[in-house]
Design brief:
The protein is α+β, with helices and mostly antiparallel strands and 277 residues long. Helix content is 26%, strand content 29%. The protein has helices at 14-25, 51-57, 65-76, 162-170, 184-202, 252-261, 264-267; strands at residues 2-7, 36-39, 80-82, 86-89, 95-102, 108-113, 119-121, 128-130, 143-146, 149-153, 175-180, 205-210, 212-215, 220-223, 226-229, 235-239, 244-249. The strands form four sheets. Strands 1, 2, 3, 4, 5, 6 and 17 form a seven-stranded mixed beta sheet that branches. The chain has a six-stranded mixed beta sheet with strand order 9-10-11-12-15-16, with helices on one face. Strands 7-8 form a two-stranded antiparallel ribbon.
């Protein structure tokens, strides 16, 4: 099972970001007998500007050109695509930070709206982040049936909330995708250890596709280090810096073996909080 994470340096131009993603998809091998899973980072088509720009591109689901563009790429390159995240208009006038999963025929296998919003202070050039000013938190967890197994979805700041990942495991997740745009400061301090912890706790493969570098002439700086992590917490593959692919073949027997030898889900004596699926 081939999985591919694309590390991007997205900016304010949707057209340029789409061109970059497609240029990278052209580089993947496309054998007819091999299915591929591709994971894009958070805000893959629009990143680093004012939140008002996200609102400009946000429409309801049925009319989202960004959604249509990403679905078309899944179909054109015959991939299962975890399409990073794009803005979708919410009921209260704000927007959802939504991750779609597209099948090889461009149909929607499932989607997830980011639950945890990044309202924090960071010692970087931006200083203060207030996602909730423009974004609306999601209302459900998502575990999607795919040809690769049961895929749990999360986005960026979600990684700090172990209860979400436990809920994904209890809902059947075998693989967890995490599109992200971690700041350089927080990424350098916590990114790797958090990803490995979530993989170990859930006994899932974790696929973390990240933004990297300086965006829009210094407006934002992200950490990168896209990673594929095993259910044992081992780093299978990573890309510390630069743009491009992180790829690996996943062996699902490793997941079965880890869970059989250490059945932690059966040993846990605490009940996790319930969110509707």
């Amino acid at each position: 099972m081939q999985v591919n994470l694309l590390q991007c340096q997205s900016g304010r131009s949707v057209i340029d970001n789409l061109k970059f993603i497609e240029s990278q998809l052209k580089q993947l091998p496309h054998e007819t007998d091999s299915q591929q899973l591709v994971v894009l980072p958070e805000c893959c088509l629009l990143f680093g500007g004012q939140e008002s720009q996200q609102l400009e591109y946000a429409t309801d689901e049925a009319h989202s050109q960004l959604k249509q563009d990403l679905a078309a790429l899944a179909s054109k390159y015959s991939i299962v695509l975890v399409a990073g995240s794009i803005p979708i208009l919410a009921e209260d006038g704000r927007i959802y930070n939504r991750c779609y999963v597209f099948d090889t025929d461009a149909s929607v296998l499932g989607y997830y709206d980011k639950l945890h919003l990044f309202d924090v202070e960071v010692s970087d050039g931006t200083k203060q982040y207030r996602e909730s000013d423009a974004f609306c938190p999601g209302k459900h967890i998502a575990v999607v049936d795919t040809p690769f197994g049961k895929l749990g979805l999360s986005i960026c700041y979600d990684i700090r909330f172990a209860d979400l990942f436990r809920a994904l495991r209890e809902a059947g997740a075998e693989i967890i995708a995490l599109p992200a745009a971690f700041t350089k400061v927080t990424g350098e301090a916590h990114w790797q250890v958090l990803l490995q912890a979530r993989a170990i706790e859930t006994q899932c493969f974790v696929l973390a596709a990240a933004q990297w570098g300086v965006h829009n002439d210094g407006g934002r700086e992200t950490w990168g280090q896209s990673m594929i992590i095993s259910p044992w917490g081992s780093i299978i593959a990573e890309k510390p810096s630069g743009t491009g692919w992180v790829s690996a073949e996943l062996d699902m027997s490793e997941l079965t073996d880890v869970r059989a030898k250490m059945p932690i889900i059966n040993h846990n004596r605490f009940q996790s909080p319930k969110l509707s699926e």
